[in-house]
Amino acid sequence: MKLLPERPMRLPRLRPYVPQSTDPPIFWFNSERDDIVREVVRRVVEQKAQSGRMELVLNEVAYYEAERLEKQRDAESRESLGFWRGVLRRVGRMSDAEKKETLRSITEHMARDIAGNFDPRVYALATKAVPKLVTGLMSPSKLHTALFEERPKALDDLLITQGCIEKLRGLAKKGTLVFVPTHSSNLDSIVLGYALMREQLPPVSYGAGKNLFSNPIISFFMHNLGAYRLDRRIKAGVYKDTLKTYSTVLLERGYHSLFFPGGTRSRSGLIEQHLKLGLAGTAIEAYARNQVRGIQRPLWFVPTTINYALVLEAESLIEDHLKEQGKAQYIIEDDEFSSVDRWIDFFRKLSHLSSACVIRFGEPMDPFCNPVDDDGHSLAPDGHGLEAGSYVRRRGTPSLDHARDAAYTTVLGDAIAERFLRETVIMSTQLVAHVLFRAIVAATPGTDLFGRMRHKGDVAMPIERLHAEVAEARDAILALERDGQVHGSPALQRDSAETLVERALQFWTGYHTLPVATRVGAEVVCEDPALLHYYGNRLVPFATRIAPASLAAAASELARMGQRS
Questions:
Q1: pLDDT at residue 335 tops 60
Q2: Domain-embedded: residue 4
Q3: Cβ atoms of 491 and 427 closer than 8 Å
Q4: Residues 514 and 403 in one domain
Q5: What is the mean pLDDT of residues 377-390?
Q6: Residue 491 resides in a domain
Q7: In the chain, what is the straight-line distance between the N-terminal and C-terminal CA atoms, in Å?
Q8: Do 407 and 505 sit in the same domain of this protein?
Q9: Are 453 and 561 within 8 A, CB to CB?
Q10: Based on the domain organization, do 441 and 506 belong to the same domain?
């Protein structure tokens, strides 16, 4: 079997780090990596062998991989295509022992390709150097002062963290945290990783698309800071089983983890509601497996929202959404994330805005959607304690039951989606965009979404009317916040409507290729309906609740558009 070998990036010569007993679990990962891979391979091969369908499994993986590599025609194809064609030719003549060994070899290669890495030395380097580097990109004149700051103030002003942080610090020492955030940008794992470090929460293991490892600088840090690789090009079921088993084993061993339950970035800008919990669902299996083995390690999900005033890849995401609506597996290979120039423009634009990103950590819940107290004990609706382990018992004995766990996962998905709405933080650019796009909808009755995209520069709002509608919508959002239904950013709570509009227009200008909206005399002209739609979509779940009676029809149309996306 000749497959492409792993080519791990080499570290600069650094002093070896010996993990301490007080270190987060992931600091011990490298010493366990080989054993984790062996356990993953053992489980997958045993499960396939016991099913009596090894020939079908080998046929499927060889067919899909040969088909993929024939289309790629690259170095991987030259190295591996012959192997897969050989499996297709020989599988019908293989003995059961040969089939099992071939499957073992394939699964091991996949598991090693997936498996991440964690180097505490790189973590120490990243926590010190990366914030200063980002500060230098945002504002080169501040770099000389940032170099001597323990925590650069410029970056702390940009990133606000909210929620039950102190409670999570305590729970991290008692069990396993599984962060499940919204997903808007490829920056999410980087930004959230920095927020965890800054708030003294433990680093996490997380999956990242293999295409993101093409950037050598980003790849170096991701490879050494807990990311494991997801190759979305591989369609074979055995690959998906290997990936899920890898995640399960990590969680069984107590590695704090991060999953994006939306699957991919929200291309429309909507708050994700149709979640894909394949990997997040492995946490329920991991919890049940530990219970069966008598390991009483609690596990909690932490719904988290990542809220940006400006999204790095907004143009590519909304363009892809409009072109490929409904095709959730479509992968953008080349967008703003891969362009160094766009990174520099993006961070420099951020330097002019405080609270450019707000990360909100929601209240943790056990795998069965029960709230937990400060010590991690599960609570019933009446506030009394209950035992989470009882959910995986059959006749008083812990058991594995995939159908049962799948049902729990479905309920979990509904709970996370509902929490995403409540924990979302509305940013000023999103509010202004929503009001402007609502004006486009009101001005174009009977027109579909794609027809509205052609109205570039055709719709304008008098500035006084825009101020009034933004103020009314802002007040409605803050009223919803008091009811616990959503949150407003610090800017929404602090600034006047006039300031919110002015700052949004300034913020959009000079970063996106085309102006999003521009002030022309006493009016604001809607220049780019697509980006107004993208940023404004964050408020779509609340559209009918924040609109005045005169705009109820337009708000209802926005809500229907969101349901169709």
A1: no
A2: no
A3: yes
A4: no
A5: 94
A6: yes
A7: 44
A8: no
A9: no
A10: yes
453 assigned to some structural domain: yes
The mean pLDDT value of the chain amounts to 88
* CA separation for the pair 345, 115 (Å, rounded): 34
pLDDT, position 218: 75
pLDDT at 9: 46
Which DSSP state fits 336? G
Kindly tell me if the per-residue pLDDT of 326 is higher than 50: no
DSSP 361: E
- Burial category of 32 from C-beta neighbours within 10 Å (exposed 0-12, middle 13-18, buried 19 and up): middle
Q: Which helix (H) or strand (E) holds 431?
A: helix 428-443
C-alpha closest to that of 326 among 415, 213, 449? 449
Q: What's the confidence (pLDDT) of residue 4?
A: 44
Q: Which of 188, 330, 311 is nearest to 259 (CA)?
A: 188
3-state helix vs strand vs coil in the chain, percent to 5: 55, 10, 30
- Residue 546: which of 533, 531, 556, 561 has the closest Cα? 556
Q: Give me the residue label for tokens 């420099």.
A: 348
- If pLDDT is split at 50, 70 and 90, which confidence band does 137 have? very low
Helix (H) or strand (E) holding 504: helix 497-508
- Give the pair of three-digit tokens for residue 462: 């008098």
In whole angstroms, what is the distance from residue 376 CA to residue 203 CA?
Answer: 19
Q: Is residue 416 domain-shared with residue 482, that is, in the same domain? A: no
Q: Are 473 and 403 part of one and the same domain? A: no
Regarding whether 533 and 413 lie in a shared domain, the answer is no
pLDDT band at 338 (very low <50, low <70, confident <90, very high): low
Q: What is the pTM of this model?
A: 0.89
**Going along 412-548, which residue ranges are E strands?**
425-426, 460-462, 487-488, 517-520, 523-526
The rounded distance, in Å, linking the Cα atoms of 416 and 394 is: 26
Task: Name residues whose C-beta falls within 8 Å of residue 274's C-beta, 6 or more positions apart in sequence.
Answer: 417
Q: What percent of the chain has pLDDT over 70?
A: 86
Contacts of 420 (CB under 8 A, 6+ apart): 182, 271, 272, 273, 303, 305
Number of structural domains, the chain?
A: 3
Residue 376 shares a structural domain with residue 436:
no
356 vs 310: CA distance, rounded Å: 7
Tokens linked to 269 = 């800008």
